[in-house]
Amino acid sequence: RLFRERGFEETTMRTIADEAGVALGNTYYYFRSKDDLVHAFYERLQSAQLAASESILLTEKNLKNRLSGVIRAQLALFAPYQRMFISLFKIAADPESPLNPFHAETKDLREACISRYQELVEGSSEKISDDLRKELPVLIWMYDL
Fold first, then answer.
1. Is the pLDDT of residue 49 over 80?
2. Helices marked H in 1-144
3. What is the pTM of this model?
């Protein structure tokens, strides 16, 4: 909420601690920085996204329906955070930011997401060339950004 209302840059760790009703030291015990806090949020959201798309990937074989189902599940999860994502976009767009999707700090999240899209492609009944099958998960991930 604070990032949404005040923006990422203007929100301090002290403000976050005050809002959470905890001591500032406790906040730093769990999160070294606001970037770490956002990264933890991304991890939690990605776990929810993976869980939400699991049934689609287990039951649907048509590639179009698989992709549509995964994207719809993702949009439903992300909807409450739309305003926050807008405030974080400027920060994440900076190539030097640890929140940038291509940064080394986000490698685990990026690879997990691409792996899910790999599962989406591999589990489909569509005939896809080997070259496209190899690249499609990364292309879907990039589109998903």
1. yes
2. 2-6, 13-20, 24-30, 34-59, 63-78, 82-93, 107-122, 130-144
3. 0.82
Domains of the chain, earliest start first: 34-144 (1.10.357.10)
21: left (phi over 0), alpha (psi -120 to 50) or beta: left
Could you identify the residue written with the tokens 């994207």? Answer: 71
- pLDDT tens digits, one per residue of 82-140: 888 888 888 899 999 999 999 999 999 999 999 999 999 999 999 999 999 999 999 99
- The burial of 120, by beta-carbon neighbours within 10 Å (0-12 exposed, 13-18 middle, 19 or more buried), is given as buried
Calpha distance 66→70 (Å, rounded): 6
Let me know: does 136 contact 128? Beta carbons within 8 Å: yes
From CA 110, how far away is CA 132, in angstroms rounded?
19
Provide CB contacts within 8 A for 50, sequence distance 6+.
112, 116
- At 128-141, the pLDDT tens digits run 999 999 999 999 99
